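Reply to dn_fold:

You asked what the input looked like. This is it:
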Amino acid sequence: MKGRSGPTGVETTRPVLGQLEHGERGRSPQSFSGTEFTFQRQLRMRRLAVAIAGLAIAFLVAIFFVSYGSKLYENWRERRLLHQATTLLQGGKLSKAAQMAQELARRHPDSLAALSILADAAEKQNIEEAVAWRERIARLLPKDPESQLNFASAALRFGKLDLAREALNRVSPRDRDSAAFHVFASWLARAEGNFAEQEEQFAAAVKKEPKNDLYQFNLAALQIRSKDAEKSKNGRDTLERLSSIAPYRTGALRALLNDAVERNDLTTADSFAQQLQMSPEVTFADYLLCLNFYRKLDAKKFRQLLEKVKPFAARNASDLASLIEWMNQNGLAGDVVKWVDKLPAAQLRSPPASVAIADAYATVKNWSRLKRWTRTRNWGDAEYVRLAYDAIAVRHSGSGSGSSANSEFETLWQSADELSRDEPERELTLARLATKWQLGNQAEELWVRVEENPTMRREALDNLRQLYRARDETTKLYEVLQRLHQSSPTEAPITADLARLGLNLSENTESSHQLAKDAYDRAANEVNCAVTYAFSLHRLGRNAEALAIIQSLPPDQLHDPRAAVYVALVLVDASQLEEAKDYIGSAENGKLYSEEKKLLDEAKTKLIAASAIPSPAEPPPSGTRPL
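and this is what came back:
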């Protein structure tokens, strides 16, 4: 809009400005006051929002610092506890170290460091909890072979053979070809009574680490007892080398002395005996070992030496018991009975001497003296043995009427049994006594209980096996062989026995044939395994193959009655009748169980039938002319 011209001719907008000012001024006071209020309100809201945001940020920052600081503190505290526990463990303060590690493990159940301290402390204190700690570590590190072997070691140490086997089975196949694995496997085999497997595993360990003298020593100690002449010589040579190295000297001399005595090499044995007696580590048991040698060398000198050893042994209760036990086992129980009358009664009335003397009275069958000996006083922890020997005296003395004697025996034995129940070592001692003195029913019951303990399982099964075979209880025998095979699946002779009896009983026939082959594949030169596989082939209609196996074996080893019956069967079917007659004769002279007797009858029947048919190659009787 254009303005008017003033006197000077210049356009002015004053009226317009005036109108604008008038318009601005023309607002009401109420209108201006409302706008200001709105603005102030918005300002206050903004300030409040900023304050709230600031508080929130401050709160979050505070939470962060508190949380982070707490974690820092906890980490610091845990590191401090771990360091203290490690220091205490290294300083031999095992209980305190374990307490600190326990606190860490409660906070962090998967703390490998805490679990390792707990396991180490328990092992150093010889506490069985070590097995549980090692097992937890092994489960947290399933692919770590060292953790599995540590678990196996702890399990073996405390007799948990099943757990040890489980740990070794967890080791991956690629980690099993190590010296450490083979050593642990050999320890397990030894605990299971599988000495062939033990030797095999130590041989593998030596192959991996041929310069390790400890492995060499263990292998040689096994090989020197081998029936294989080459193995025995290798073991002897290794032990002679190790006898000049301090850590192995005494052990090597013991093994070499035993071997020389068994081979009747008395000159060599004399040298080893003298060296052993001069060894700083010689024990009273070593003197008994030397007595074995001197007894073979010269009866007069032996008697003189024995009389010198007696007063030395009488100074210590344990040595006295050891000497009496040795004399009992070497046909000198009669000498013990005379000798103990000259010893102070105070030395004899408590175990272990009282137990050894009771065994001497039983060995010479002086039942009345044994009765008096076992009814004098309580034997403390060995009270169950006193009651057992008292029961044995009653059973064998034949005094009193039959029913009263049986009742007295049952009462005494039951008392001994109750004192040994749920105590594996006592049950084992009682089972051995029952077996030695032919208490069949009592022995069977005890061995069945002893079998539940993994460390004693093999001895229990071996005794049950002998018991059932003697009784001709083949069904129970087969069950025992199954359990033996389960506990020691790589032991070829057991596999062969199981296979052969299974074929005789027609039990698990297909599996029995496979077991027979497995045993032969594992130990083809072992007569028992070879004969069993030949029997399996014979039953499968493959007699020519069976005959080839029989003919490959040393004839002098086949005349054992347990082998001869099977050899006779194969020879009869191969029409080798004269040879078959020879083996039938050998089988008849042995103790066979009922199923083997049936096989022998089968061989005889076939032999008679085959002998009745003239041979086409048989020459005509003398004095006749062929048509």
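The radius of gyration is 44 Å.
Hope that clears it up.
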